Amino acid sequence: MLKAFRADLAIIKERDPAARGTIEILLCYPGLHALTLHRLSHKLWRLGLPLVPRLMSQLGRLLTGVEIHPGARIGQGVFIDHGMGVVIGETCVIGDNCLLYQGVTLGGTGKATGQRHPTLRQNVVVGAGAKVLGAITVGANTRIGAGSVLLRDVAADSTVVGIPGRVIHQSGVRVDPLAHSALPDAEARVIRNLMERIDSLENDLGRLQSCLLEVAAGRPLLEPCRGQAQNLRDREIIEFLGEDSPGLRELEPGAPAGDPAGPKAP
């Protein structure tokens, strides 16, 4: 427990430029207070002591604004920055050197027993207000953007943004856990992509109208009247919508309009 406390203290000094010294960290960092109290309550929980660990958890919530169920398993060097509003469920597993900001929820879905909360591997960063829900696994060195809602497994070395959370792959690239400004704007990229397509279609339509006028006037066409083919299932849109999006299934060849399930079997 002392080794874990020293690791928690060291990670705050490493990652928080506002930390002025050890005494200030010991007195003024509620995330550290919540983790220290949790490590004690977790030991009592593993011993099977009734009620007392839950009371300690509620005391920690009252004092720090961080609610950690005593059953949660938390590694060393974990930093809960600011802390207020953080909720960590009973079967959560948090790896070493993870960073959680205020308002983060690591919660469950439904009333299933057993593993029902997320597992975070090493060096995961969860931005302010993000929600990670269900018995999913978040790979090592992954960043989850502020306000995101993650509902599915994520591979290592990824960045997740949006509601629901969508993965922008950065496989093999270690990311700076404090570089929040480097998060990609997936929505802006897709909107720009669609605007370019609309502009291209308008140009094609204008060219076809000119061709029709030439044909109606009986004049020969000087160049072919056909537009450039556009493929809506490009990489950025697929990543943004997800492979299993009903909107993408409607684009499958042979799928009747308005039928997201595609053509029916005879």
Brief sketch in words of this structure:
Helix content is 35%, strand content 14%. The protein is of the alpha/beta class and 266 residues long.
Which key phrases capture this entry?
266 residues; 5-stranded parallel beta sheet; 6-stranded mixed beta sheet; 7 helices; UDP N-Acetylglucosamine Acyltransferase, domain 1; 2 domains; alpha/beta
Helix percentage:
25-40%
Beta-strand fraction estimate: 5-15%
Number of helices: 7
Task: Kindly report the CATH topology of the largest domain.
Answer: UDP N-Acetylglucosamine Acyltransferase, domain 1
Which runs of at least 5 residues are low in confidence (pLDDT < 50)?
Answer: 257-266
Series of secondary-structure elements, N-terminal to C-terminal: HHHHEEEEEEEEEEEEEEEHHH
| Number of discrete domains | 2
CATH architecture of the largest domain: 3 Solenoid
Distance between the termini: 64 Å
CATH class of the largest domain: Mainly Beta
Overall morphology = elongated
Tell me the strand order in the biggest sheet.
3-6-9-12-14-15
**Taking all residues together, what is the mean pLDDT?**
79
CATH superfamily of the largest domain: Hexapeptide repeat proteins
Briefly note the structural class of the backbone: alpha/beta
How would the blueprint of this fold be written?
Elements lengths: L1 H14 L6 H7 L1 H17 L5 H13 L2 E2 L4 E2 L4 E2 L6 E2 L4 E2 L4 E2 L4 E3 L11 E2 L4 E2 L4 E3 L3 E2 L4 E2 L4 E2 L7 E4 L4 E4 L16 H31 L18 H7 L4 H4 L17
Parallel strand pairs: 1-4, 2-5, 3-6, 4-7, 5-8, 6-9, 7-10, 8-11, 9-12, 10-13, 12-14
Antiparallel strand pairs: 14-15
